[in-house]
Amino acid sequence: MTNTKATLVRAGALAGFMAALLWGSASYAADPVNIRIGNFAFAPETITVAAGTKVQWVNEDDAPHVVIGIDKDTPIRSAALDTDDKYVVVLDRPGTYKYFCSLHPHMVGVVIVK
Question: What is the reported pTM?
Answer without folding.
Answer: 0.74
